[in-house]
Design brief:
The complex is a heterodimer of chains A (310) and B (325). Chain A has 14 helices and no strands. By secondary structure, chain A is mainly alpha-helical. Chain B is 36% helix and 23% strand. Chain B has a domain of 87 residues. The chains are: A mainly alpha (310), B alpha/beta (325). The interface between A and B is medium-sized, with 20 and 29 residues.
Chain lengths: 310, 325
C-alpha cells in the first residue's frame, strides 16, 4: 500500500502538471493564498477569537470600533467591529466559510446536472439532444441573477423570513446550482461529440459494454479537462453570485453572514466613516475570487494540449 | 452448418439527398476455424460489411435487407442488449489504428479487466491473472509492467498486440480484423500478422481479415472475397484466386502488385477510380475501367455465377462458361 503511494507520488512529481506548477510564480502564489483561505474557512470555529453567531457575547458598547492600526482601535478587535459590536475578523472567517461552502456545493450541483445532461445529449443524440439543448438555450436566455432573484423572493415570501433564514444556505446552493448547469452541459456535449468519433468508443461498443458504462467510464474521463477548467471559474462566479444576492438582501441572513452579507451590512455606515465594515470583507472577497480565477487560467494553459510547450 | 452466415446482406445510408446503397447484396459463409479475407479498394464496402456483422453501423446507415446469422442467433434483428452478450465475447473486432482504439485515460490493465468482467463473473484478482496470461500470449515484454501503463506509453506495435490480447480475452469464436496492420510499420506488420495467425490457429478462432493487401491475404487466409462497389465480384479459395484470377478487376489487382514489375519499370495500375456510390454505372459497375468492356457489360449487370467452389460476377466469364458447354 505504502509502496503504491510513494510510486504515485513519484509519478506526480515527474508529471507535466507539477513541472509547470513549479515554474509558474502566479500559480504558486494563488495556490498558497487559496489554501490559506480554505484552511481558515475550515478551521474558523477553532481559530476565530469570538463566535459571531453567539448573540450573547455581543456588546453594543463595542460597536463600530475601527481596526487596530487606527487611533481608536482596540487590541481586542484586530479588524474592528461592526454596528452590533461583532468582531470583524471572526465574522470574516465565518463568512468565508459560508461563501466557499455555497460556491463549492453550487458548482458540484451544476456540474452533476450539466455532466449528466451533456453526456445524454451528446451520446444519445437526436431528439433527446435537441430537447435538452433547447432547454439549455432557454435557460441561458434568462440572466442568472434574474432567475435567482425571482426564485429567492418567492421562497422568502412563501416560507416566511424566520424559516427562510434556516434554509437560506440550501436555497442559495439550489438556485445558483440550477441556474448555471447549461454552461457545463454545452461544454460536455461538445467534447462528447468529438470523443464519440474516435475509434476507442467503437472498440468499447464492440467489446459489448453497456451504454451507461461507455458514457460514464469511457467518454466522461476524456472530457474532464474542460470541465475542470470551467469548474474553477464557476466556483468564483458562484461566490460572486452569492455575494451579490446577499448584498441585495436575498442571500444569507445577517445572523449567519457570508462575505456578501457582511459587505451589505456595512454599506449603510460607509458614509458615516465606518469604512472597514464594508471594505475589509470586500477585499477578502476580491482576493478570493481573483486567486480562483488565476488558478483556472493556469489550469487551462496546462490542460490545453495545443499550448503544450514541454 | 456454418458458424456465421451472411445472406443477401444489403446496407444503405439514408441521406438528405436520397439513399446510398453501400452494400448491394453479399452472401458468404464462415466455418469454425476458417480464415477468410475480404479485399477491395477503399470504398468497396469492406469495413461496412464488417461493422454490419456486429450490427454496429451508426446512423444514418442501417441494414436494409438480408440477414446475418451466427450459430442460432440472427444478429441483424437482435436488440442492442442481446447483441452486447455476443460482442466482445463471441465475436471480437480489431480495428485499423491501434493509436485510437485504446481509451487514452485508462490503464491497459483496467481496460482488460473491464472487458473480462463485462462478460464473465470474475473477481479482480482472477481477471488480472487472466489479463497477464493473455499479454504473455501476445509476446509483450515485461507484461506485469504494461498492466499499469497507459496507452501512450506503448509503441504502435505493442498497442496492436494489446488490442489482440483484448480481442482474445473472452475466447471468441470469430475475430474480425479491419485492416489490422495498415497503421503500422512494415516490419511490425509481418510480426503482427504472424501473431494473429498463430493465435487463431492455436485457439481455433475463425478470422475475417479485411485488407487491401493481397500479400497479407495470400499468407494468412484460406478463402478470399473480392469486393467492388458494394458487391462481391469474385470469391473462392485464396490459392485459386491468386494463381488464376477470373475477374478482370482481380486480375488487375494482382498485376498491380509491386513484385510484378521489374526494377525501373512503371507499376501496373487499373485506370480510374471506384465509382461514387450515388453514380454507379449501369450494367457491370466495373465497365468504365475494364479493358474488356463489351456492349453487353454496359447494358446488363452480371450475376455471381458459382462453379467448382468459385464464384465470379463477370459477363465475359459467363459467356465463356456458356461457350465451354
Amino acid at each position: 500500500m505504502n509502496l503504491t503511494f510513494s510510486s504515485n507520488l513519484k509519478q506526480f512529481r515527474d508529471s507535466f502538471l507539477w513541472h509547470s506548477f513549479k515554474n509558474d510564480k502566479v500559480a504558486i502564489v494563488s495556490v498558497v493564498v487559496f489554501l490559506t483561505f480554505a484552511c481558515t474557512a475550515i478551521l474558523a470555529p477553532v481559530i476565530s477569537p469570538y463566535d459571531p453567531y453567539d448573540l450573547v457575547i455581543l456588546d453594543i458598547m463595542d460597536s463600530e470600533i475601527p481596526p487596530v492600526w487606527s487611533e481608536e482601535g482596540e487590541e481586542r478587535f484586530l479588524l474592528g467591529t461592526d454596528s452590533q459590536g461583532r468582531d470583524m475578523l471572526s465574522a470574516i472567517f465565518y463568512g468565508m466559510r459560508t461563501s466557499l461552502l455555497i460556491g463549492l456545493c453550487a458548482v458540484i450541483l451544476q456540474a452533476t446536472l450539466g455532466i449528466i445532461f451533456g453526456l445524454l445529449a451528446g451520446y444519445v443524440g437526436g431528439k433527446v439532444d435537441s430537447f435538452l439543448m433547447r432547454v439549455a438555450d432557454i435557460q441561458l436566455s434568462f440572466s442568472t441573477m434574474m432567475v435567482a432573484i425571482i426564485m429567492l423572493a418567492i421562497f422568502q415570501a412563501s416560507f416566511g423570513t424566520e424559516r427562510y433564514n434556516d434554509l437560506a444556505i440550501f436555497m442559495l446552493i439550489m438556485v445558483i446550482g440550477i441556474a448555471e448547469w447549461p454552461q457545463y452541459a454545452r461544454t460536455v456535449r461538445a467534447s462528447v461529440l468529438a470523443e464519440q468519433e474516435k475509434e476507442y468508443i467503437d472498440a468499447a461498443r464492440v467489446l459489448g459494454f453497456s451504454s451507461i458504462r461507455i458514457m460514464f467510464r469511457h467518454i466522461l474521463p476524456n472530457t474532464l479537462s474542460p470541465v475542470l477548467v470551467i469548474s474553477t471559474v464557476q466556483v468564483a462566479n458562484a461566490i460572486m453570485s452569492e455575494a451579490a444576492l446577499s448584498f441585495l438582501g436575498l442571500g444569507m441572513p445577517v445572523t449567519q453572514p457570508s462575505l456578501g452579507s457582511l459587505i451589505s451590512s456595512g454599506f449603510e455606515f460607509i458614509f458615516s466613516g465606518s469604512w472597514w465594515i464594508t471594505v475589509i470583507p470586500g477585499v477578502v472577497l476580491i482576493v478570493l475570487v481573483l486567486v480562483i480565477n488565476l488558478l483556472g487560467d493556469w489550469l487551462r494553459d496546462v490542460l490545453n494540449p495545443k499550448l503544450y510547450k514541454g | 452448418m456454418s458458424l456465421l452466415q451472411v445472406k443477401d446482406l444489403e446496407v444503405s445510408f439514408k441521406l438528405r439527398t436520397g439513399e446510398l446503397h453501400a452494400i448491394r447484396g453479399i452472401s458468404f459463409d464462415l466455418n469454425k476455424g476458417e480464415r477468410i479475407g475480404i479485399v477491395g479498394e477503399s470504398g468497396a464496402g469492406k469495413s461496412v460489411a464488417a461493422f454490419s456483422i456486429l450490427n454496429l453501423i451508426s446512423q444514418p446507415g442501417y441494414i436494409s435487407g438480408g440477414s446475418i446469422s451466427y450459430k442460432d442467433h440472427t444478429l441483424s434483428t437482435m436488440s442492442d442488449a442481446e447483441l452486447a452478450t455476443i460482442r466482445g465475447n463471441q465475436i471480437a473486432m480489431i480495428f485499423q489504428d491501434p493509436m485510437m482504439t485504446l481509451n487514452p485515460v485508462l490503464t491497459i490493465g483496467t481496460q482488460m479487466i473491464e472487458t473480462l468482467q463485462a462478460h464473465q463473473k470474475m473477481d479482480k484478482k482472477t481477471a488480472e491473472k487472466e489479463a497477464l496470461h493473455r499479454l504473455k500470449q501476445v509476446h509483450i515484454p515485461s507484461p506485469e509492467k504494461r498492466l499499469k501503463q497507459y496507452p501512450h506509453e506503448l509503441s504502435g506495435g505493442m498497442k496492436q498486440r494489446v488490442i489482440i490480447a483484448i480481442a482474445l480475452l473472452n475466447n471468441p469464436d470469430i475475430i474480425i480484423a479491419d485492416e489490422p496492420t495498415t497503421a503500422l510499420d512494415v516490419t511490425i506488420q509481418a510480426e503482427i500478422m504472424e501473431l494473429l495467425l498463430e493465435l487463431c490457429k492455436n485457439n481455433g478462432v475463425s478470422l475475417i481479415l479485411i485488407t487491401h493487401d493481397l500479400g497479407v491475404v495470400a499468407q494468412t487466409t484460406e478463402k478470399v472475397i473480392v469486393m467492388y462497389a458494394g458487391k462481391i465480384i469474385e470469391q473462392g479459395s485464396t490459392r485459386d484466386i491468386i494463381d488464376n484470377p477470373n475477374h478482370p478487376y482481380t486480375q488487375g489487382l494482382i498485376k498491380a502488385l509491386p513484385q510484378k514489375a521489374a526494377p525501373g519499370e512503371m507499376l501496373n495500375q487499373i485506370p480510374g477510380n471506384m465509382p461514387q456510390l450515388d453514380a454507379i454505372p449501369t450494367g457491370c459497375a466495373f465497365n468504365p475501367r475494364c479493358e474488356h468492356t463489351t456492349e453487353l457489360c454496359i447494358k446488363t449487370e452480371p450475376e455471381l455465377i458459382a462453379k467448382d467452389n468459385r464464384a465470379v460476377s463477370c459477363n465475359l466469364y459467363s459467356e465463356r462458361l456458356k461457350h465451354d458447354k
